[in-house]
Design brief:
There is one protein chain. This protein has 261 residues and is mainly alpha-helical. It has 2 domains: 146 residues, Hypothetical protein af1432 (Orthogonal Bundle); 85 residues, no CATH class. Helices cover 66% and strands 0% of the residues. The protein contains 12 helices and no strands. Helix 1 runs antiparallel to helix 2 and helix 2 crosses helix 7. The protein binds fe (ii) ion. Fe (ii) ion (FE2) binds next to helix 2. The site of fe (ii) ion has 5 residues, from helix 2.
């Protein structure tokens, strides 16, 4: 992707999101500005992972375009449903693709690259990426999933540390404060697999679910970032002293260390 094309997409994106931010209430404005900042940081993450993997500058720009658009559906989602919970509203990836098609934002982008961007967005939030996806799209779908997770960990690590001062129900998906963790969530972690959103009941389930994402990472540079930024440790800090929860976290940390050997 040429540099002027990526620059154009970035201009288009910032024009597109402004009316949503201005129209939202105070909690919505905060949440949407967080999404804007998240998009920028996912862009940095994807470039950093891609650079470590030796991507060409053109592919790095394509990766940046994937990051730029991966959560575009969040803005329309909040406008229509006042939530970021896909379970209680709509799949934000599908909604984002609809918005991109409707606005013809990618009209000037090479056809093959458009397909890669659409495919990566469509699968960025799926439980699993179908292995049958054709190779370039599969690669970029895996890249965005890694880059996105790194930033979601960062956001929640920060959030859980200051939640006593600023609690935000949109961030917490309106989950219960009951300190326990649900059995199916713990079981997934003990098996070294990703926990399922459908099993979420408590806020601590949500933290464990996020930790279980380490079992879905694709690239070594992402594992390195998880370790360097101490992301799991930061999320785990706010857990109660429950031995089962602690064991699940320990297994996840050991898994990450193993990927770096
Ligand atoms: Fe995201």
């Amino acid at each position: 992707m040429p540099p002027e094309r990526l620059a154009h997409l970035k201009f288009w994106f910032s024009d597109y999101i402004q009316p949503f931010i201005h129209a939202a209430d105070a909690e919505g404005q905060y949440a949407l500005r967080q999404k804007q900042a998240h998009t920028a940081r996912v862009g940095q993450n994807i470039v950093s992972i891609g650079t470590s993997l030796g991507l060409s500058t053109s592919d790095l720009r394509l990766a940046e375009a994937v990051a730029l658009f991966h959560d575009i559906g969040r803005f329309k989602q909040y406008e229509r449903f006042h939530t970021f919970s896909d379970r209680h509203s709509i799949n934000h990836a599908a909604l984002g693709l609809r918005e991109l098609n409707r606005s013809r934002a990618m009209a000037g982008v090479d056809r093959q690259q458009q397909r890669i961007i659409r495919c990566a967005i469509a699968h960025h939030n799926a439980f699993q990426v179908p292995a049958l996806l054709h190779a370039p799209a599969l690669f970029f779908a895996r890249l965005i999933r890694d880059a996105d997770k790194l930033d979601i960990w960062h956001i929640f690590a920060d959030y859980f540390q200051q939640r006593q001062i600023h609690q935000n129900n949109t961030m917490e998906l309106n989950l219960s404060e009951d300190p326990s963790c649900s059995k199916p969530i713990l079981k997934a972690l003990f098996h070294g697999t990703m926990a399922k959103l459908a099993d979420l009941k408590t806020l601590n389930d949500f933290k464990l679910l996020q930790i279980s994402w380490v079992y879905d990472l694709n690239f070594k540079p992402t594992f390195e970032a998880v370790c360097q930024r101490a992301l799991i440790e930061q999320i785990a800090k706010s857990f109660p002293r429950d031995t089962e929860i602690r064991a699940a976290v320990r297994i996840a940390r050991e898994f990450v260390s193993k990927q770096l050997e």
